[in-house]
Input
Amino acid sequence: MKSVKIKKRLIYRKSTYKINGILFDVFKELNYGFREKIYQHAISQELLRNKISFKREVYIPIYYKNHKIGRYFIDFLIDNKIALEIKVADRFYSSHISQLLSYLKSAKIKLGLLAIITPKGIRIKRLANTKRTAAEQLAECAE
Output
């Protein structure tokens, strides 16, 4: 019964399911040992092959009182609604989570996927643009 409630609350469930499948396919083919850019190129190829709309390295300007004070680049923006960030690391780090949450907030995107490619496999974390802090969302990764 509890899982049914969770499924109803997950946003973009079907899209993220497809994206997760692509991420696992890329890892299965390439395995561990490449730079992030190599995995990003492979993911791009799979998104194209699956006819999923996406943009790469999406520019997000940061403004303070109508003055541009910085910028971000999201690895992927999928279907104009899901940010995807790829990292090669041994685990989720709070800096990765904070980075993606900043992207979501700045671009006003509801959902982000953080994929880390490790020697043991690929792990994917869903991050929502909510009032929860990076520390709270990182704590969920440890569970």
